[in-house]
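For homework, think about our next protein:
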Amino acid sequence: MRSFVGLFLGLWISAGLVLGESQTAIERIGFGSCYKPEKKTELWSAVKQFDPQLWLWLGDNFYNDFVDGKYIAFNNDPQAFVKGYAKLKSSQGMEALQGLMPDRVMATWDDHDYGKNDAGKEYARKEEARKAFVKFWGSADQAEGVYSSKDWGPAGKRVRVIMLDLRSQRDPLPKKGQGPSDGDMLGEVQWLWLKKELAKPGADLVVIGSSIQFVAEKHRFEKWANFPKCKGRILKLIGELGVKGVLFVSGDRHNGEISCQKGTEAGYPIYDFTSSGLTEVSSITEEENPSRVGHLVNGQNFGAFRIDWSTADPLIIGELRRADGTVAETVSIPLSQLAPPKR
């Protein structure tokens, strides 16, 4: 009898601790993308100094198509994903975030950790990639992809993080000179899931993790603008459901920037915080983006949200921080600005 009571009390205490943890208000969220685990960088010291309560990996978390420092079009090594995740596991980045693993880290993938540059649903090794992702991150084992969602914090201070999968069901990219595609990136199963997650009550802030840029449209690389019907569909869904507090975070570009699209079907401005890369740096030092807030951020960087819940109108301070921890770009957004018009 005593052992049963002890077991019951142990389970009750554990459940209470888990509940207490999930009810802690999230005030600091870190995020980043484009990481070669074999590279060392002072950036992780800056991340530890920021001390995030939650970290979001936005894709290209290792580079499956780089072997011995050289790019290969298709990695057919049967152990490619095992080796890739082994490098990530023993990396400087994972060491810096070990205190958050596994419960306070969320992840999605982009093309390079999915396995092949610019790959979509046609990728021959996508099922191997999915199983390796699920095993490493402990994500839900879903046949259609690696998307996930989780709520954090108490009522009135609740953050919902939705991580999309833009690879597993993505139609082919438009060919050069053809213009945008009428295709899709999510697949109908993920669309239904996303609608359900957006419609759930209780979230005060909704952070959507997208491996590629949502707002920026002028550059020649991967972006939601390559699939305008898909982009329009998610904005319309946000508007129709009356979802408040939606922000996007993205990666992919090896440059960072903050973008804001106004006059959307969501009913309010949509911000996209692009943080890239944790180790990888683009040779592009400037490009056109009429929606950019501030300047393009060159060099290694990570993203940081600081959320001040203490005021009547909570304030989200979104930052892009350089490897030395200095703030390269920042914008402050009162939560009331991320609300659909009253009907």
